Structure formats: structure tokens, C-alpha cells
Amino acid sequence: MAQEKIEKPRKKWIIKLKDKYRLVILNDETLEEKISLRLSRLNVFIVLGSLSIFLVFVTTYIIAFTPLREYIPGYASVTSQKAIYELQTKADSLENAMKEKDLFVENIKNVIAGRAMVDELPAVKDTSINYRNVTFKNSRDDSMLRVEMERQDKFELSANDQTDASPPRSNISNYLFFTPLKGLVTNNFDPANRHYGIDIVSKKNEAVKATLEGRVIFADWTLETGYTIGIQHQENLVSVYKHNSTMLIKIGSYVKAGEPIAIIGESGELSSGPHLHFELWYNGNPINPKDYMSF
Known about the structure:
- The chain is of the alpha+beta class.
- It has helices spanning about 1-20, 40-65, 80-115, 140-150; strands at about 20-25, 35-40, 185, 195-200, 205-210, 215-220, 225-230, 235-245, 255, 260-265, 275-280, 285.
- The protein folds into 3 domains: about 1-65, no CATH class; about 80-120, no CATH class; about 170-290, Distorted Sandwich (Glucose Permease (Domain IIA)).
- The chain has 4 helices and 12 strands.
- The strands form 2 sheets. Strands 3, 4, 5, 6, 7, 8, 9, 10, 11 and 12 form a 10-stranded antiparallel β-sheet that branches.
- The model is unreliable at about 155-170 (pLDDT under 50).
């Protein structure tokens, strides 16, 4: 008897799942039947499940195989990389064309002077050695300009003399930092030697991404660090990206976490190869980026 009582509710549940219902849509004024559908709980479940699977498949396809994926953090812009490649190809072509024209002019000079024609241009003499021992003295105008720039702390990204002081991590430790560039860390954070960030080596023409959302407060060329970008984030947090080959944003732009902002390069006098010098500053003090993200 007990087993029959257990089986009856199960059968009733299966029967209810297959019970037919009719969905009727009527005209509110004339009560005329417009649409009539015969449904069951099982059919509705199958239709909704199939529709959900179809929507997931379509969404995955759109993200994986269409340009819409560029709007997702972590995906670099395909069009910008293509444009950079085309510009690089044109630059190489122009360089070769200039060499051919210079060789043509040189051979014309040789013919006029009665000398033999050459297949290659002579090597250009390195004249930079003549300027290695040059010393500079600060002028009065230069000193006044330095004092004025030091007073303006709007774009101040340098640290105080307290190189051994590290700010507390409690306010920003819960932030989800986006790794700006995946690669090999060749130079670690060392404030004692005035190295306030880390150096990351990666593939050529890799996109550099913003570590957090924020406002671009600096995007310009400097003699020592080349194309440099500074982004102001919440909680007095600033991220700095140096030695880029080109910049994809401008000052005043608002960027999201993971958005491409530059292309890796070796611009500036302090660069010895293609890499990214990445810094994090919290309340005016440098912090180690490796404490908050992996590279």
C-alpha cells in the first residue's frame, strides 16, 4: 500500500506535466478569438530551454567572430592594429624609396665628377660622439620655469623623497586590477634605486591596456620616457605607462578597465628595447604593481 501511494504522486506529476492547456487571445471589444494555442508544461519548458540555448550560442558567436568583441575589456582593436601595420609598411616603403633616390643622386654626382658609380651609399659617419662631453648650465629662465612647474601639482607623477614609505593597501586591496600587458618582468620595483615601477617585455605591437577605469591626465611625448600616459583613478590612485610606440587615446579621455590605450614600444632616451614601464602611485607614493596583479 505504501509503495502504491508513492508511485501515484509520481504518476500524477508526470501526467500534470503533459496536461494540455489552451492559450486564447480575444478581442477585448468583440470577444472575437484571434489566436489559440494548445500548450503543455512540457512543451513550454522545451521551447524556453531551446530558446535559451540558441541565445547563448548566438551571443557567443557574435562576441567571438564579429567586431563587437572590441568593446569587451581585454580585446584589442583589430582595426587599429591593422592601421598600425599599414603605416609601418608605408614607412618602410618610403625609407627604401628615399635610399634609392639618394643613391641615384649620388651616382649622378659621381658621373659629373668622373668617378665610378656605386651600388650602395657610403656609410654615414656617426657625429654623435662630438656631443658626448657637452655640459649644460641652467639659465635663469630655465630655473624660473622649473620652480613654476614644481608648484603646479596637477600632473605631478613623481614621488617624494620618502622612497621607503609604502602606503597602506586597505583602501585599494579590494580593487580588481586589469593586467596592462602580459609578458616577462625584466626589471622589478626598486624605489631605493629610483625605479618606481616594473618593466614588462612582450610581443611586438602588443596593445597596452588600462589597469582601471579613470580619466587620462597626461598623454604626451617626453625626451626620457617617450610616449607616456598617466591615468587618474579613484582613491588618489594613478597609473603610468611609459616608452609606448604610439598612443590610442588623448588627454581628457575617460577609459575603462582593459581598454587599449597604447602600443608597446621603445620610445625615449631611457629605453633599451621594446617594453612597457608600468607604475602605480597611491596618495603620491609609488607602490609595487606585482602586489596587486600578476604578469
